[in-house]
Amino acid sequence: MSELPDTLRPAIAHGMRLQWEPAQEAHVLLYPEGMVKLNGSAGAIMSRCDGVRTLADIVADLERTYAVVGLAADVRAFVALALERRWLEARE
Known about the structure:
92 residues; alpha+beta; 3 helices; 5 strands; globular
């Protein structure tokens, strides 16, 4: 996939559900064939992918929440991977 635009509005893909799993102390992505346990960073990104916020909004929110800068490349790489795996879909 080419460079993702700042205006991309990623959303959890149709048929998938993101939820916090207390027993595993992690976000999980549920789908009909199974489940993906997400690490902390992936869960933080996926929980912001609501189809309303842009990629730029998500990066800014994560940087503000965790008081760090320079997350854009990592967030973009994860979102690209999640789009490729069809965990996320791009909304207009």
